Amino acid sequence: MTEAAILSTRDQSRADVVQWTCPHGQHAGRGCVTCYHASAEADPSLPLWDVAAWFTTARPIPIRALQDVHRHDRGLALTQPSTPLVYLLSGQVRAALGAEAVAGVVGFLLQNRHIVDEFTVTEIRAVHF
Ligand SMILES: [Zn+2]
Q1: Phi, psi values for residue 39, rounded to 5°
Q2: CA-CA distance, 26 to 23, in Å (whole number)?
Q3: Alpha carbon distance 25, 23 (integer Å)
Q4: Residues 6+ apart with CB under 8 A from 115
Q5: All structural domains of the chain with their residue ranges
């Protein structure tokens, strides 16, 4: 099962917004610190999600900070596909819902403001095994 959303402030239907709201009322694309912490000790019986979140930043993220993400967190990777100032944060997390999985992964950015202080998530994807 794949759930994906291209986020824009203009044309997002109400149904999409509901689908991508985590149990704490945060939009998955904005991230949720509670989901981020929950994913660290998720029940192993919960589904495993392959999450990808593309985001843009106002300033480039130093290469060193990109590489540090690995060491730093359980299986998350922060890469720069090709376009300047567009980044991809990806990883596998366990969560009941795709929205929780994405909110948890994006929550990593909220917890690590030294990596990126301001970001806008433009597209999210959660694939469920
Ligand atoms: Zn949450």
Answers
A1: -70, -20
A2: 7
A3: 6
A4: 61, 65, 68, 69, 78, 109
A5: 2-128
C-alpha angle 124-127-129 in degrees, rounded to nearest 5: 160
* Cα 22 to averaged position of ligand 1 atoms, centre (Å): 5
Going from the Cα of 114 to the center of ligand 1, the distance in angstroms, rounded, reads: 21
d(CA 81, CA 17): 26
Which H helix or E strand runs over 125? Answer: strand 119-128
Could you tell me the distance, in angstroms and rounded to a whole number, from the CA of residue 82 to the centre of ligand 1?
30
Model confidence pLDDT, tens digit, residues 65-114? 888 887 766 679 999 888 889 999 999 999 999 999 999 999 999 999 98
